[in-house]
Design brief:
Helix content: 25-40%
Number of helices: 8
Shape: globular
Distance between the termini: 41 Å
Structural class: alpha+beta
Radius of gyration: 22 Å
Length: 272
């Protein structure tokens, strides 16, 4: 079990997977150790990696609108649910952009090539769920114009670094790049084991592309209340692309936190 969220300077040094120089913020503790509060790496072209853009045909805008009007006339469609389903279905990081009521998705971004059949099936199942089709009636044979349009979109592999532009000395990029920019770094961090507090810690990516410790031996455990049941918490590291003043290169920020693990599905709703 990890003894604390703090790591000494030597531990922080081992958390450098051979990337270029890093920027860190730390505060000194009473015993001259350092507590790592923030860690950032320059997001080089190598760390940006590539992504696969599925550009939807123009007709998809009308298909989104027809589905929205038929399902939830005054509400946005649950695009996040479709993206989550595609991530779970394919094992890739997937996002849809844009994803607002006024601007329906025009493209799908994935961390690796997707099987067209998987894309079609995911949209087919999602559309039926949105329309309220009973679970026992949902089928892969459902006819969906939207699924055919999305699955038939053109696909292009792009360098994410190529979509970062500079205005003077300040870098900037489209919104979808900020979300996809951390995928390659998450993949590399997940592939490496780390020596922390005398033990080995392995990070796993979640469906949002962040990192989580999931080994039972590396979880924190305690009774949060007196005489309460034993509870668990896990280290979670959120990755984000950010820009900083006077830096021409965007940075990858690693922001650690503690995620308490729930013992039940509180706040969820089931039909029937």
């Amino acid at each position: 079990m990890l003894n604390s969220a703090r790591c000494g300077a030597s531990t922080a040094q081992r958390w450098s997977p051979g990337w270029s120089s890093r920027v860190s913020t730390a505060r000194r503790l009473r015993d001259d150790r350092q507590e790592l509060a923030l860690l950032a790496y320059p997001l080089t072209e190598q760390l940006h990696g590539t992504a696969y853009i599925h550009r939807f045909p123009e007709e998809v805008a009308d298909a989104w609108e027809r589905l929205r009007n038929h399902a939830h006339a005054n509400a946005n469609l649950p695009y996040t649910g479709l993206a989550t389903g595609l991530r779970a279905y394919s094992g890739a990081f997937v996002n849809l952009f844009p994803a607002s009521k006024k601007h329906a998705p025009q493209q799908l971004i994935a961390s690796r090539p997707l099987d067209v059949r998987d894309v079609r099936d995911a949209v087919v199942l999602w559309e039926q769920a949105v329309l309220g089709v009973p679970d026992d009636k949902i089928t892969f044979n459902y006819s969906s114009e939207l699924a055919e349009l999305v699955a038939g979109s053109t696909v292009e592999e792009v360098s994410l670094a190529g979509h970062v532009h500079r205005f003077g000395n300040q870098p900037d990029a489209p919104n979808w790049v900020y979300d996809a920019a951390t995928w390659e770094a998450a993949r590399r961090l997940e592939a490496t084991s780390w020596q922390v507090d005398g033990g080995e810690v392995v990070l796993r990516t979640d469906t949002d592309g962040n990192l989580l410790v999931w080994d039972p031996k590396a979880l924190w455990s305690d009774a949060w209340k007196k005489n309460g049941e034993l509870q668990y918490a896990a280290l979670r590291v959120r990755l984000s692309m950010q820009t900083m003043p006077n830096l021409r290169t965007p940075v990858l920020v690693l922001d650690p936190s503690v995620a308490r693990l729930s013992r039940g599905l509180y706040g969820t709703r089931t039909d029937g």
